[in-house]
């Protein structure tokens, strides 16, 4: 019989029941992959993070991430949640933690302010895929119920990755964004063809001075119809905005705040920083705050 310490954490917010909920299993060393998947399915968040001891001396901690359906290589909001809990549990001062995840060994910045924390994760390599072909593009727009005239003409429909790829789709208005009601079965079928499970629709139509973009993310192929607020979409978005000349920057760094989740009542804010080299995006960091919703134990 194993007793597990489990938290439910809302990431990219300081307000309970906002942002993106993630499960965090603090002491996951003795769990099998099957048990991790069963726990993730039971908690039924878009992702659950499992904290594991290091298996070599080049990192401090390991993380694995599961949706209710499959293991995924990286997850932004579950990373924020896991390191937030770890910082609280071990009463950490501001520090940099090196974690090992499926996409590699990367730093995570823990920033302590009083008795609370914010967390900033460095994402994986920036990768741009060619803009999607006409047929794939038409199928995606039909599934999302977006007309050509509603698109932001500056924005190619393109797969971008910083560790976990997303299709980036720019549209003109926030009203259209919030009214989207996609055909989830169609999106899941398209994912099998394009080998990408997430569709991130965004707009730069923002009336808030502090917020540059608003977005929504759909990933039915991995059991997540809509993910409220995620780093693994807003991070690639930051690289995409720089790559396509949609924002001004100083040729060294570009930072912005992205809101997501408003349409489903779970608004949160992701802070994105893109480091540039010769005017091109080379590294992306995403960060934010978190709040504990509950803590419990599970015996299995």
Structure description:
Its EC number is 5.1.-.-. Belongs to the PhzF family. Keywords: Isomerase. InterPro entries: Phenazine_PhzF-like (IPR003719). This is Putative isomerase YddE. The chain is an alpha+beta fold and 300 residues long. It has 2 domains: 130 residues, Diaminopimelate Epimerase, Chain A, domain 1 (Roll); 163 residues, Diaminopimelate Epimerase, Chain A, domain 1 (Roll), CATH 3.10.310. It contains 6 helices and 18 strands. It has an 18-stranded mixed beta sheet that branches. A hairpin with a 4-residue loop joins strand 10 and strand 11. The radius of gyration is 18 Å and the shape is globular. The relative contact order is 0.18.
Layout of helices and strands, plus pairs?
Elements: E1 3-11, E2 20-25, H1 33-43, E3 47-52, E4 61-66, E5 71-72, H2 76-90, E6 95-101, E7 104-113, E8 116-122, E9 127-128, H3 134-144, E10 158-161, E11 166-171, H4 174-179, H5 184-194, E12 199-203, E13 213-219, E14 224-227, H6 231-243, E15 253-260, E16 268-277, E17 280-288, E18 290-299
